[in-house]
């Protein structure tokens, strides 16, 4: 019952908050879009998006959104060919086309031109601005960049720290999808990290999608090991310390059951992969809480 009440409080705050986009993004319906007038291969385009608040190449989910994209591209005087965040494995089989970062397949919705996808032309996919159709291409072709991030809400909340009796304004240094993230500047054991976050009216971070995981690795400006807010008794089982449901698992380095960490070394091949370590070891850590949360004044 306690966690149901917490969820209802957070949900009601989100309903009252106004959806916003990060700086540099345009709000289009319920999405945040950014056109980048650079010509890059698809991998480079995705890396370019990552620089902007952890954005990814765009996903289109229905005809309305596809129409909005054409209008948006025209308004930006965009190039005719713009990358989508999709790759395909088989010709003329939409179900073989995957949106990046576990965002589904083109079997749910697609706007391929006749006889596409056609992997003989390449596995990557772009949209042609003038007719709104999607086409296959080799991934090394240089096309323009269309990024998106989820909408979020104003980050400043009010919290009481330690022995303070009054709530004080509290900024949100890293704001993503209605959550504030706080990277530590010290090392701590897992238990001490949990206590530190609790004193901020926050939890040690839980991660619920590939996109959130991608965002997280953009935050630190140092190479380090970072605690995540969970334990992994096996590769297939994780438990978050904030009791949130497990909707995403990127645990790949499993030497022994223990507390979850992520190494961030600015190496795109391994950054974002999770491992386990003894909980008494020390590491940096991330705290996380909903945007705009007003914390109890007796929080200590």
TrEMBL record:
Residues in C-type lectin domain copies: 28-148, 176-288
Domain of life: Eukaryota
Keywords: Disulfide bond, Signal
Secretion signal, residue range per the UniProt entry: 1-19
Gene3D superfamilies from the UniProt entry: Mannose-Binding Protein A, subunit A
SUPFAM superfamilies membership: C-type lectin-like (SSF56436)
Name of one Pfam family that matches: Lectin_C
InterPro entries for this protein: C-type_lectin-like, C-type_lectin-like/link_sf, C-type_lectin_CS, CTDL_fold, Snaclec
The protein's name in its UniProt record: C-type lectin domain-containing protein
Organism of origin: Caenorhabditis latens
